[in-house]
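Hypothesis: this fold can be encoded by more than one sequence.
Test: take the structure tokens below, design a sequence, compare later.
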């Protein structure tokens, strides 16, 4: 993913991180307010149902008591008994005695009034007939609910069945299990309570034979919503701030050079270009130096000087080196197998020289191929030899496998002569900084000659880097420098182009490169005998 996409995704994630928690907090506040109001309405309906059930139980007990009495009907004692039950039983307005279709007496006294025989609206589970619209015959007033069993009935004022302390605009209703409405609160209608209204909240509680309904306008949610937002909104805003900070942190981490480099290693975004190495005496191409390039998914190239130091510092240079080794064998394996005079130089990091970790990696890459170890030349800068004992072990193990080992960028470190004298090296590569001074009146212009003399004295092959002018090439050839590379001959190029370049050079020579056949230098220092001759690994 390139930087533009990372930035775009980061902005999108930051917006989502900023908005989503606040929206979620608002939604949770709404749900909390809704649940709170529904719970409150449910509680009101439960209270109404409990009140109605207590009323009906009380009425049923009164009816049972009167059914069991042995007092003479409508006697003073009988009427007094009904009066006492009315006074002592909440919700009951009147107790009456009915015989022969006539209301004979009630808790009000003796009465001789015709009773209209109408069927009950419904019968309760305990066998009590319930009449929901009864006009009192003695005590004129509001329509009441009558409960009748045998020769007795009781009258209950409907409003008292749902008389629950609550907000003024909360409406309450009570109905039987058959749907028959029994009571409603003041200002409410059974028809209204029986319908669903989008602007009202409704709660229903089912009891044994009864159902209580409570409704209130949705406007009540505003207060509850405000209370919920009071604590949820700060949490949402704090969460949004944390998430945005996290997104910014991740984005900066993802956009950091180290993070991009780690991702590039994981996705194997590195390619290898090959800079030809020329035999200066003949002008023949004898191989190439493998130079790693970071090619982003969008095709852009990252210069090695921008990522190699970071890779070395972070330890990512090792998997990059592994990818380079595999790429060399994969891309040039056919050429190397067909022409044994070709070699490829691979750069190693200091840690690989110190630990020797790279050698089994190379062995594995070469396994099953027809590429010989002698055709891979290993290079390391002076920093790689700062642990002389372990460096010596790695160099000796590499040379035992057939690899030649060169010190790269010679002269830029602090202890070059010490490395040359004490380590079993095969070749020395003169840094471009010294080649640039050739022919110039610079303070270091004479250093190149001394380096060449020193390498000759130590019997090392010499490779000059960064040759850009013919004058530089002529000077080096006159000083019998073995090999050179630089833009004078060719820039680094992909494997396919290098193969074509090499074939072209070989065709111009005709019989192929002229290779000096001598014992590989450095072995006398290492204590071993001469190995079979080969270009750059003689």
């Amino acid at each position: 993913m390139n930087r533009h996409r990372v930035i775009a995704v980061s902005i999108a994630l930051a917006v989502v991180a900023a908005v989503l928690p606040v929206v979620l907090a608002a939604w949770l506040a709404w749900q909390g307010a809704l649940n709170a109001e529904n719970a409150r309405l449910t509680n009101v309906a439960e209270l109404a149902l409990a009140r109605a059930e207590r009323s009906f139980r009380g009425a049923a007990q009164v009816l049972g008591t009167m059914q069991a009495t042995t007092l003479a009907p409508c006697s003073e004692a009988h009427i007094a008994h009904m009066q006492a039950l009315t006074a002592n039983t909440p919700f009951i307005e009147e107790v009456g005695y009915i015989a022969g279709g006539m209301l004979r007496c009630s808790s009000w006294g003796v009465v001789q009034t015709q009773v209209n025989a109408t069927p009950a609206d419904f019968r309760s589970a305990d066998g009590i007939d319930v009449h929901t619209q009864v006009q009192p015959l003695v005590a004129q007033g509001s329509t009441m609910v009558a409960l009748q069993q045998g020769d007795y009935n009781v009258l209950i004022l409907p409003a008292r069945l749902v008389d629950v302390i609550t907000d003024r605009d909360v409406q309450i209703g009570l109905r039987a299990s058959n749907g028959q409405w029994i009571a409603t609160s003041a200002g409410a209608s059974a028809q209204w309570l029986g319908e669903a209204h989008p602007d009202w909240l409704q709660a229903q509680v089912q009891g044994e034979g009864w159902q209580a309904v409570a409704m209130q306008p949705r406007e009540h949610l505003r207060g509850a919503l405000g209370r919920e937002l009071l604590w949820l909104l700060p949490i949402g805003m704090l969460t949004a701030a944390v998430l945005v900070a996290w997104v910014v942190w991740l984005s900066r981490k993802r956009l950091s050079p180290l993070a991009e480099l780690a991702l590039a290693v994981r996705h194997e975004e590195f390619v290898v270009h090959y800079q030809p190495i020329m035999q200066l005496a003949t002008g023949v191409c004898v191989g190439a130096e493998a130079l790693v390039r970071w090619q982003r998914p969008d095709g852009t190239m990252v210069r090695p000087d921008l990522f190699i130091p970071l890779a070395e510092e972070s330890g990512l240079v090792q998997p990059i080196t592994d990818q380079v080794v595999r790429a060399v064998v994969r891309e040039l394996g056919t050429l190397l197998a067909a022409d044994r005079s070709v070699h490829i130089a691979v750069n190693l990091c200091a840690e690989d020289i110190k630990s020797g970790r790279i050698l089994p990696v190379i062995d594995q890459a070469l396994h099953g191929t027809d590429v010989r170890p002698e055709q891979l030349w290993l290079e390391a800068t002076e920093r790689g030899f700062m642990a002389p004992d372990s460096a010596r072990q790695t160099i000796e193990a590499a040379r035992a496998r057939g690899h030649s080992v060169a010190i790269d960028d010679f002269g830029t470190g602090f202890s070059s002569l010490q490395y040359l004298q004490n380590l079993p090296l095969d070749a020395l590569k003169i840094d471009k900084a010294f080649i640039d001074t050739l022919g110039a009146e610079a303070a270091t212009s004479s250093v190149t000659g001394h380096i060449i003399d020193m390498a000759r004295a130590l019997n090392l092959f010499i490779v000059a880097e960064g040759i850009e002018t013919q004058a530089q090439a002529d000077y080096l050839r006159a000083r019998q420098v073995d090999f050179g590379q630089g833009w004078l001959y060719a820039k680094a190029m992909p494997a396919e182009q290098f193969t074509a370049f090499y074939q072209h050079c070989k065709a111009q020579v005709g019989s192929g490169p002229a290779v000096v056949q001598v014992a590989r230098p450095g072995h006398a220092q290492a204590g071993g005998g001469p190995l079979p001759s080969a270009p750059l690994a003689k």
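The chain is about 45% helix and 20% strand. The chain has two domains: 3-219, 257-526.
Hypothesis status: open.
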